[in-house]
Amino acid sequence: MKTELRSCAACGDPISDRFFLEVGGCSWHAHCLRCCMCMCPLDRQQSCFIRERQVYCKADYSKNFGAKCSKCCRGISASDWVRRARELVFHLACFACDQCGRQLSTGEQFALMDDRVLCKAHYLETVEGGTTSSDEGCDGDGYHKSKTKRVRTTFTEEQLQVLQANFQIDSNPDGQDLERIASVTGLSKRVTQVWFQNSRARQKKHIHAGKNKNF
């Protein structure tokens, strides 16, 4: 009795090869199984992904359908530290006030307005039309007190991308690396150093907060 050959899901030709691939309930010639985006061969890859009958490599699937940071729009990998605000997800270093650029710490109050993250001071300024938080503040009794005005560093999305990428590689760079990163971002070495110090502190708080929830 003649055995009916399977048809390849990609080219449609019968599969007479001794070895073939089964993916998503379909059969494929080994050389026909390729990513629909970059066309890289997938027959020797450990995994591939199917969506709406299209086959993707891991990188292209993550790029098109994986979680993305709501600030920098870059992909979020499984190893990244993230912060969530409702349905939005942010890289830890990208979770900053949209008005002043200050990164927000674990447990700090913030607000979402039109998917923009605002620190408490700038949220109140926006809804109440008050003065900037760098000029005035409130003490524990609710009375206004003057504060020394200080200049805040505002980071661009491109600078945050460079800082975040380097933080993932080394969260505590040495002086030479700080100078290199400062040169790439256009920031001063001191500002770059402080950013890394603050990010390490936030990461430490984030880890401790997660551990405390388990007790």
Automatic annotation (TrEMBL):
<protein>
    <submittedName>
        <fullName>LIM/homeobox protein Awh isoform X3</fullName>
    </submittedName>
</protein>
<keyword id="KW-0371">Homeobox</keyword>
<keyword id="KW-0677">Repeat</keyword>
<keyword id="KW-0440">LIM domain</keyword>
<feature type="DNA-binding region" description="Homeobox">
    <location>
        <begin position="148"/>
        <end position="207"/>
    </location>
</feature>
<feature type="domain" description="LIM zinc-binding">
    <location>
        <begin position="6"/>
        <end position="67"/>
    </location>
</feature>
<keyword id="KW-0805">Transcription regulation</keyword>
<dbReference type="InterPro" id="IPR009057">
    <property type="entry name" value="Homeodomain-like_sf"/>
</dbReference>
<dbReference type="GO" id="GO:0007444">
    <property type="term" value="P:imaginal disc development"/>
</dbReference>
<keyword id="KW-0539">Nucleus</keyword>
<keyword id="KW-0238">DNA-binding</keyword>
<dbReference type="GO" id="GO:0000977">
    <property type="term" value="F:RNA polymerase II transcription regulatory region sequence-specific DNA binding"/>
</dbReference>
<feature type="domain" description="Homeobox">
    <location>
        <begin position="146"/>
        <end position="206"/>
    </location>
</feature>
<dbReference type="InterPro" id="IPR050453">
    <property type="entry name" value="LIM_Homeobox_TF"/>
</dbReference>
<keyword id="KW-0804">Transcription</keyword>
<dbReference type="InterPro" id="IPR001356">
    <property type="entry name" value="HD"/>
</dbReference>
<dbReference type="GO" id="GO:0005634">
    <property type="term" value="C:nucleus"/>
</dbReference>
<keyword id="KW-0479">Metal-binding</keyword>
<dbReference type="Pfam" id="PF00046">
    <property type="entry name" value="Homeodomain"/>
</dbReference>
<dbReference type="GO" id="GO:0030182">
    <property type="term" value="P:neuron differentiation"/>
</dbReference>
<feature type="domain" description="LIM zinc-binding">
    <location>
        <begin position="68"/>
        <end position="129"/>
    </location>
</feature>
<dbReference type="GO" id="GO:0000981">
    <property type="term" value="F:DNA-binding transcription factor activity, RNA polymerase II-specific"/>
</dbReference>
<dbReference type="Pfam" id="PF00412">
    <property type="entry name" value="LIM"/>
</dbReference>
<dbReference type="GO" id="GO:0046872">
    <property type="term" value="F:metal ion binding"/>
</dbReference>
<dbReference type="InterPro" id="IPR001781">
    <property type="entry name" value="Znf_LIM"/>
</dbReference>
<keyword id="KW-0862">Zinc</keyword>
